[in-house]
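Usage

Read records sequentially. Each one opens with the input sequence:
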Amino acid sequence: MSGAAPDRAAFVAGLQEELASFDELSRILHAERQCLLEGDADALLALTDAKSRTVERLVELARLRAAHLTERRLTPGAAGMQQWLASQASAERARLAEAWTRLLALTASARAANRINGGLIATRLTHNQAALAALQSAAQHHTGYGPDGQSDFRVGNRELARA
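and closes with the structure output:
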C-alpha cells in the first residue's frame, strides 16, 4: 500500500488544521460574546462572515476525517478515531492522541460558547421585541394629532396645546 504514508500525512495535517480552525472559532465566539454584551451590532455583523467561513471549513475537515476513517473500514466517529490511534506507531500515538483529545475539548468548548452566545442573542431579542411592542402600542393609542390636524395631547381631561 504505497499510498498509506501520504494518506496518513494528509490525515494528520487535517487534524492539525481542525485544531487551528477550532482555535479560530473560539476566538470568534469570544469576540461575538463581547459584541453581544456591548451591543455592538456592526462588529457582530462583521464577525458573522468569519464565523460562517470557519464553521464551513470545520464541517469539511470533519467530513474528510470521517471519509479517511471509513476508507480504512473504521467507524467515522470517536470510536473509529480511537481504533486508528491504536494502530499508530507508539512513538507517534501519544502525540496524535493528545491532538485528538485537544480537538474533542475544543469542540465541547466551542459548543458551550455558542450556546451561551445563543442565550445572549435570545435575551437581547426578547428585550428588543418588548421595546418594539411598547412603542407600537403607544403609537396606536397616542398619535399626537387628531383627524383635524390639531394637537391631541391631553393630561387627564385637560387639553395641553389648544389655543
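Summary fields computed downstream for this record:
- Residues 90-141 form the longest helix (52 residues).
- The chain has a mean pLDDT of 87.
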